[in-house]
């Protein structure tokens, strides 16, 4: 059950949408089942309120589960109402927002409830890549309902009272809730399903409103926020110092210092999120080597290497951006791949997914090399070699196979008389930005303080980009 201080299902909707804009549909629908004395139980609206409304004048479809009606469990008609909302959303090209507070499947309805779950899975799959899907978890979200949340494009979780789990903590081998509450927001923020963990129901709903305003309505539109009131030529004096922590650097680049980071607690070595440039929504993917606190002090450091979790996080984000025509910016600083036995099991497949995501995306793609760009790890990070439209580099950036000293030691490992230092210096000349620019691999070397202006103008010139890829059903990576 939900916390007694929580908003009701209807109050959540009213907080989410513009005042007096919500229109309920299917209010009279209720259960058909009479098994297990169900005929004696009142289930208003079959435990879910559905309808449509406006968020800052943007139309949305909404369903909000009512934990006061049989714990918000999903039965046959409950599922039918949610599926109907999705069907309408796909016809009209409007986002769907699900406010989740559900104890799972309604056991009294057995196979009818199971069929209802399948129906929701199907319509969510059909809608994927057509309209944005957002889930916000306020109470329980367990078992098959957790899968529903994971099928959304973006999932929010209230920090104190929400619980998200496939298997409850007490059923996990060797675990129990007091030892490690795997259903809690504290745990889930370090996992891959939840994009945003926020304390307070109203705060969650306000964050959903914010996200809706920067996303396109569907896959035929582009994301345009409000008119830009920021200086298009604004100088970013601290960008070079901030580049190690892209969460800080991207906020400095974006209009009015706006940066909405997703999955902030998961795979921290890879930063993903949204900024706006001259009012245009841009998806950002960046390698992180340091984490700064609010005072600019370094609180954590990371290797400049691609990890399995980081690659999969970035690949999924790029695919979402590409599906909804959101341009992609990368800030690249990578020297290779993670070097552990565990990573060796999975890293090749994860890098393949990342490479494919960038190569397959036909939205405008811009890369800014902020540090080192070495080897095939760099190639995978939105390099020109796999389809970036524009590649910029800071003056101190390096592009090449690997660190010059390491390369010289490898090349002359069998030559005892070789001057390894001299050979490293010779190799170094091939790794500077000038050598890469001379071959067209870098379009321009830019001053760090001019990064906002240069990136903004690049995306504006690419706004009308259009590609017609070879027809195929889908890729297999």
Automatic annotation (TrEMBL):
InterPro entries in the cross-refs:
AccD/PCCB, AcCoA_carboxyl_beta, ClpP/crotonase-like_dom_sf, COA_CT_C, COA_CT_N
Domain CoA carboxyltransferase N-terminal, chain residue ranges per copy? 1-169
Keyword check for Transferase, yes or no: yes
Listed under GO cellular component are: acetyl-CoA carboxylase complex
Which is one GO molecular function term here? transferase activity
Task: Respond yes or no to whether keyword Transferase is given for this record.
Answer: yes
Which protein, by its recorded name, is this? Carboxyl transferase
**Organism per entry:** Butyribacter intestini
């Amino acid at each position: 059950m939900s916390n007694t201080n929580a908003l009701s299902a209807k109050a959540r909707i009213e907080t989410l949408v513009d005042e007096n804009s919500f229109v309920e549909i299917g209010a009279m629908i209720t259960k058909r089942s009479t098994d297990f004395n169900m005929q004696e139980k009142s289930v208003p609206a079959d435990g879910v309120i559905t309808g449509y409304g406006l968020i800052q004048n943007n139309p949305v479809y909404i369903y909000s589960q009512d934990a006061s009606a049989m714990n918000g469990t999903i039965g046959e008609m409950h599922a039918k109402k949610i599926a109907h909302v999705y069907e309408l959303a796909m016809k009209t090209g409007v986002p769907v927002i699900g406010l989740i507070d559900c104890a799972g499947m309604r056991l009294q309805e057995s196979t009818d409830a199971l069929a209802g779950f399948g129906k929701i899975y199907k319509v969510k799959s059909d809608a994927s890549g057509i309209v944005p899907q957002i889930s916000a978890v306020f109470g329980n979200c367990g078992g098959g309902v957790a899968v529903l949340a994971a099928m959304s494009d973006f999932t929010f979780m209230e920090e104190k009272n929400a619980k998200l789990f496939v298997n409850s903590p007490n059923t996990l081998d060797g675990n129990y809730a007091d030892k490690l509450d795997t259903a809690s927001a504290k745990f889930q923020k370090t996992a891959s399903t939840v994009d945003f963990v926020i304390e307070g129901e109203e705060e969650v709903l306000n964050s959903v409103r914010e996200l809706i305003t920067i996303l396109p309505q569907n896959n035929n539109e582009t994301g345009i926020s409000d008119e830009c009131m920021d200086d298009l030529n604004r100088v970013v004096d601290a960008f070079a110092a901030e580049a190690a922590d892209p969460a800080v650097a991207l906020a400095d680049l974006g209009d009015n210092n706006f940066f909405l980071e997703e999955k902030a607690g998961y795979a921290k070595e890879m930063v993903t999120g949204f900024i706006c440039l001259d009012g245009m929504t841009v998806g950002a993917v960046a390698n992180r080597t340091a984490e700064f606190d609010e005072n600019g002090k370094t609180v954590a450091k990371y290797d400049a290497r691609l990890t399995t979790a980081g690659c999969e996080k970035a690949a999924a984000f790029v695919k979402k951006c590409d599906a909804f025509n959101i341009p992609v910016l990368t800030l690249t600083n990578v020297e290779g791949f993670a070097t552990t036995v565990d990573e060796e099991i999975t890293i090749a497949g994860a890098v393949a997914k990342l490479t494919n995501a960038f190569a397959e995306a036909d939205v405008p793609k811009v890369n800014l090399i902020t540090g080192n760009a070495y080897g095939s790890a760099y190639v995978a990070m939105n390099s020109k070699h796999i389809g970036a439209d524009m590649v910029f580099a800071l003056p101190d950036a390096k592009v090449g196979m690997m660190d010059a000293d390491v390369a010289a030691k490898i090349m002359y490992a069998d030559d005892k008389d070789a001057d390894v230092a001299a050979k490293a210096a010779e190799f170094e000349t091939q790794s500077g930005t000038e050598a890469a620019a001379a071959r067209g691999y870098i379009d321009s070397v830019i001053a760090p303080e001019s990064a906002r202006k240069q990136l903004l103008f690049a995306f504006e010139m690419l706004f009308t980009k259009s590609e017609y890829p070879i027809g195929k059903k889908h890729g297999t990576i």
